[in-house]
C-alpha cells in the first residue's frame, strides 16, 4: 500500500477529473487518490465511480450533500484519512493548475529532506504563473506578501493550495478549530503548522491556470482572507488561537 494519498476536491470538474486521476496513477511513484465531491450537478462523481471500477482500492470517493466550501471539504477528507494508515497527505486541484509530476517533488521534500509541510510554491523563485491576467497575478502575489507581513511566516506562497502534510501535522492541528472555509483555509493551515514549529519547505513549481472548466474564485473568498488573517494573527498573540 502506498504511504501517500492525494486529496482532490471537486465541484463541476467533469472536464478534468478523469484526466487528472489517470495522470496521477501513471506516475512512477504510486499514490492513492481521494476525491471529495460537493454534489456536482455535472456528474463529476459519476465519472469517479466509473473509474473506481477500473482502479479499485486505489481510488476513493467522498460525496457531500452540498457546496460547503474548500476548507470543509479538506477537513472532511483529513478526518477520513487519519482513520487509515497514510503517512503523507497531499492536496491538489483537479484542473491541472498543479502539475501531477510535482507530487513526486513534494514527496521527496518530506521523505528525503525531512519537511513536515511541503508547499508547491509559485513565488519561491520569482513569479511562476502561466496564463493568468496580470491583475490576478498581482492580486495573488500581493495577498501572499500581505499574509507574510501580518503573520511573520517565512513562506513566500502563503495561499498555495498544492501542499503535502505529514500525518503528524494533521494529528497535531485541531481540525475542528479551523475557522476559514474558503481559500483562506490554506493560510490558516500553514499558520497553525508554523505556530506548532513544524518544518515547512517550499518547492518551486510552475502554476498553470485551468484550460477547462470554470474558476471558483470570488470576491467573498478574497475578503475572507484579507480580514480573517488580521483576526487570526491577533488571536495568536493573545493565546486565543487553538493549534
UniProtKB/TrEMBL annotation:
Chain segments annotated as coiled-coil in the UniProt record: none
Reply yes or no: does the keyword Ribonucleoprotein apply: no
Superkingdom field: Bacteria
The signal peptide here is none
Q: Could you read off the lineage of the organism from its UniProt record?
A: Bacteria, Pseudomonadati, Bacteroidota, Flavobacteriia, Flavobacteriales
Output this protein's name: Polyprenol monophosphomannose synthase
- SUPFAM superfamilies in UniProt: Nucleotide-diphospho-sugar transferases
Keyword check for Glycosyltransferase, yes or no. Answer: yes
Which keywords are on file for this protein?
Glycosyltransferase, Transferase
Q: PANTHER family, alphabetically?
A: DOLICHOL-PHOSPHATE MANNOSYLTRANSFERASE SUBUNIT 1
Q: Where is the Glycosyltransferase 2-like domain?
A: 6-172
Q: Which Gene3D superfamilies match?
A: Spore Coat Polysaccharide Biosynthesis Protein SpsA, Chain A
UniProt family annotation = Belongs to the glycosyltransferase 2 family.
Amino acid at each position: 500500500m502506498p504511504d501517500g494519498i492525494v486529496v482532490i476536491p471537486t465541484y463541476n470538474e467533469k472536464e478534468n477529473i478523469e484526466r487528472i486521476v489517470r495522470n496521477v496513477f501513471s506516475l512512477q511513484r504510486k499514490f492513492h487518490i481521494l476525491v471529495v465531491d460537493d454534489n456536482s450537478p455535472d456528474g463529476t462523481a459519476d465519472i469517479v465511480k466509473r473509474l473506481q471500477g477500473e482502479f479499485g482500492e486505489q481510488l476513493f470517493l467522498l460525496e457531500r450533500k452540498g457546496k460547503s466550501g474548500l476548507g470543509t471539504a479538506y477537513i472532511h477528507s483529513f478526518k477520513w484519512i487519519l482513520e487509515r494508515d497514510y503517512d503523507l497527505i497531499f492536496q491538489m486541484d483537479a484542473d491541472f493548475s498543479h502539475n501531477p509530476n510535482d507530487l513526486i517533488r513534494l514527496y521527496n521534500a518530506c521523505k528525503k529532506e525531512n519537511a513536515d509541510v511541503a508547499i508547491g510554491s509559485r513565488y519561491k523563485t520569482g513569479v511562476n504563473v502561466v496564463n493568468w491576467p496580470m491583475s490576478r497575478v498581482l492580486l495573488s502575489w500581493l495577498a501572499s506578501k500581505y499574509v507574510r507581513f501580518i503573520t511573520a511566516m517565512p513562506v513566500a506562497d502563503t495561499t498555495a493550495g498544492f501542499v503535502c502534510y505529514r500525518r503528524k501535522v494533521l494529528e497535531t492541528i485541531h481540525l475542528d478549530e479551523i475557522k476559514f472555509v474558503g481559500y483562506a483555509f490554506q493560510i490558516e493551515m500553514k499558520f497553525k503548522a508554523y505556530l506548532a514549529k513544524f518544518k515547512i519547505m517550499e518547492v518551486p513549481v510552475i502554476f498553470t491556470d485551468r484550460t477547462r472548466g470554470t474558476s471558483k474564485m470570488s470576491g467573498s473568498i478574497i475578503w475572507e482572507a484579507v480580514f480573517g488573517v488580521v483576526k487570526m494573527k491577533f488571536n495568536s498573540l493573545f493565546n486565543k488561537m487553538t493549534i
